[in-house]
Amino acid sequence: MVVSDHLLGALDYPLPLPPSKHNQGEMRNLPGDYEKHHFEIDKAEDEEVNDNPIEEVRLTVPITDDPTQAVLTIRTWVLGLAACILLSFVNQFFQYRSNQLSIGSVTIQILVLPVGKFMAAKLPKKQVSTPFTKWSFSLNPGPFNMKEHVLITIFANCGAGGVYAVYIITITKAFYHRGLHPVAAMLLAQTTQLLGYGWAGMFRTILVDSPYMWWPATLVQVSLFRHVLLRSLYIFLPLALHEKEKRKKGERTRLQFFAIVFVASFAYYIVPGHFFPSLSALSFVCWIWKRSITAQQIGAGLNGLGIGSFGLDWATVASFLGTPLAYPFFAIANTMVGFILVMYVLVPIAYWSNFREAKRFPIFTSHTFDEDGQIFNITRVLNEKTFDLNLVEYENYSKLYLSIFFAFLYGLSFASLTATLTHVALFDGKNIIKMWKKTTTAVKDEFSDVHTRIMKKNYAVVPQWWFTVILVISLALSLLAVEGFDRQLQLPWWGLLLACFIALVFTLPVGVVQATTNMQIGLNVITELVIGYMYPGKPLANVAFKTYGYISMTQALSFLGDFKMGHYMKIPPKSMFIVQLVGTVVSSTVYFGTAWWLLSSVENICNPDLLPDGSPWTCPGSDVFYNASIIWGVVGPLRMFTDKGVYPEQNWWFLVGFLAPVPMWFLQRKFPEKKWIKLIHVPLILSASSAMPSAKTVHYWSWAFVGFIFNYIIYRRYKRWWAKHTYILSAALDAGVAFLGVILYFTLQSKDIYGPAWWGADVSDHCPLAKCPTAPGIKVKGCPVL
């Protein structure tokens, strides 16, 4: 599994493979018997020395190669760069909106095929010379082939991945209202994405060349390209991307189906996107009990428990949690079990028992508060010149308080981290050790795997100095970003080097776990804690340290995962490296440019109180990131999660998470015949609410309902239809919403035209009292005093 990027900025907990901005639609439906939640080394591997020792790999990846196929063609560059730029722009554009739709690379993987084939059929085979060089290339080097398609998808992966550092830029300019030099911001965006290439170069021999480091998630995209029908309860991918499809009488081809759904999605989104934004969250309970705070807390889909709330907008369904059509039903069920336990058991009990003065604050919000129930006045405790904590003023003002939901969410983040460690150790520990031993042995034997032999025979490896140069340049530019420009990022040089050291140390062990179990242990909590204790009172230093320490490791593993896919697909390593490097630089530039443009051009962006009615520029993810910077950076863990703060008991969640997987491990060993026990995944349950509070309860219920319909009812009753259309349907719905959303902005919203002024024009669920406290005597604007 990978660390989720759902909770945009604050709480990227370790999750068992939900689609994220990095992997949307790609990392579910694993090959083999996934319900076991772990792999088994094939007992017959000794008989398969000429292939691969992992059965799932043998079932998915052919042992053939055609080294004569053109790879870095004009089609690869044109379509790949276009896909990278398009996804980077669209995903960053929607990141600032109320519903943060994220388009994954699978959409491009599907869309680009007919375009590539069209170019192969229509473009002339003319040779074009490059001015002032001896290089030339053909406009049409032959049929559009699978290797081109893979590289274009790698370009798209770069654009779909997101740039975490943009959140730092956003909170600095839109929330703290401080200046940030554009060059420093650009260097931050670029270097945090590129540093991981250095770590990847150090460990690629072990994590890519070894047949025992098999990267299960990559097999899903390999199966899409190769059209292998995998024998799994949750996998059914007969999407023949490189197989000609003939339309049967009375049926439609997949391309026709995509076109129909795309047009319908494009046309419908004008309603929730312009004329009736309130369709995104319909909370009928609030409309019935208009004057009851408790009723609205229970019924509000955006700021409450969301009982009976739902949305009629695809962006509501897929914006924060990813498309539900991409999840196996067991993952949906585990997620909803965890969500229900948190939202309908833990939070209500704690709130209505007034635990830690919970009634003084809203029941569901990411905002921070003072002891009087008011929004924490951060300007009062920050030194204006030095931009750090004024401890005297802080002690004279108030301790920092959170909503009861947000407080528990941090506790669950601690539990998720330790639960993942325990889960991996119990369920996969023996196999990880066994595979590691075989890997170290295989290194001495120069690998016996057929895929590695083919790659070494047919293609030159990427020289180590390529990775070293990228690392040295990235590190130098990182030092310039943090130490130059009047140290606007606050992080000292030693903090940067410590963050890089943490990322370097953890890349190999975390990579081994991910390459064998599909689970990635996140460093976000560790990095926040370390810098929060070592360098408190510095909000930007905290988030910059977390980004350099956490994201550079994540980028390294993303790079290695893509490299493994290229390994399976027999892509020349140098071509893979070039595409990934160019894609990373281009996507980082577009993400930064889009963010800087919107932050500079949309008046009052990220400030819902000052935005016009119907404006979608509420920045829910950045709002969470901002409040996290206050909690971890300004105040710090010493004054939050010890006796000096309000929430010292939160540290017990580390122990809860550490012990939580043990009962399920025992039950699986005790009752191996009970298959339903194997479907219970404790880390996924504990981290189920990780997309919140950026995602609201209405998003969870809408997502789960659609996922239940498609991946349980339709999957079981109409499996043939599901197999043929589900992923196409998801891609078309995403694309329709994305394209019309961008068009609406450029044609109307950029001119402050947000649709007709009426009740349904609000980007809300009309539950204003859900934001109110219920403690007697607390005065909040817009709320009755009890």
UniProtKB/TrEMBL annotation:
Protein origin, superkingdom? Eukaryota
Report the subcellular localization. Membrane
* Predominant location: membrane
What would you give as a GO molecular function for this chain, any one? oligopeptide transmembrane transporter activity
Annotated transmembrane regions: 74-94, 101-120, 150-171, 183-200, 212-234, 255-271, 329-352, 400-426, 465-482, 494-515, 577-599, 650-667, 698-715, 727-748
Q: How does it sit in the membrane?
A: Multi-pass membrane protein
Q: Which Pfam families match?
A: OPT
The question of whether Signal is a record keyword is answered with no
Q: Which UniProt keywords apply?
A: Membrane, Peptide transport, Protein transport, Transmembrane, Transmembrane helix, Transport
Sections of the chain in a coiled coil: none
User: What Gene Ontology biological process does one annotation of this record name?
Assistant: protein transport
Mention any one GO cellular component term assigned to this protein in its UniProt record.
Answer: membrane
- Which InterPro entries does the entry mention? Oligpept_transpt (IPR004648), OPT (IPR004813)
In terms of PANTHER family, this protein maps to: ISP4 LIKE PROTEIN
**Its family?**
Belongs to the oligopeptide OPT transporter (TC 2.A.67.1) family.
Q: What is this protein called?
A: Oligopeptide transporter 1-like
